[in-house]
Amino acid sequence: MQKKSEKNLKKCQKFQIFFPGTVWMLEILSLIRQDGDPRWCRSVPNWDRGPWLETLLGLRRARANARPRIISSHLPVHMFPKAFFGSKAKVIYTVRDPKDVLVSLFHFARIFRPYRDPGSLGDFMDKFLQGDVPFGSWFQHVRGWLQLRGRENFFWISYEELQQDLRGSVQRLCSFLCHPLSPAALDAVVTNASFAAMSHNPMSNFSLSPGFILDRSRGPFLRKGISGDWRNHLSPEQSRRFDLVYRERMEGFSGENSGTFWEGRNSGVFGVKC
User: Which domain holds residue 142?
Assistant: First the structure.
């Protein structure tokens, strides 16, 4: 069974990886795949458009889709199937300001019933900094995946970059995916991948999820779609403590001690062969 899954994995076209929080990139990739036509996004739930690799039926669901296929995952690199590393499948890795990741994951943990109660934000921050949250340490997740920078089938981009220049980001993604778009199709991707469009689309906003999975009385799945919201939640002291741990855990990464490497234009395409 494992060999069959590994074989199927090698046939997959692209993966999108993100420490918890994948919905926006999945919407962008879905629209690129359809040349900007939003009908697929409006008729098929996002969990069927980009099934989760780590779920029991993830690969089977992905195979039901026509190529090019999209598979989503939160897995850290050391838990990712080894078949990928010998395949031509492409990975898009999205990184985000870890303080915003903390706040987003906290709100998700409050509404996602299978998770344990996160307690207060302060309590949850302690767990986050210790790596005692779903999918482990953010620091290890980022450092692990970004070791693949420079591979021709690996592309990384920041959430902040998507917000600053969505059109340019989509163009760079299309270049990496060898999937050029006409100006009209590019406009359609940008329009339909907006937070407003997603939040009103039941196929993207998880309003179709059953009540025993999401407790929507405690808040929506898609909250704000902004950067820097952590400033509305963390106290100055909490922010300083977070920074201390960040500097310690990310020391030496990319030759910098504490730089906010996710800011600005970071995405790169290295020797892509189309």
Answer: 2-249
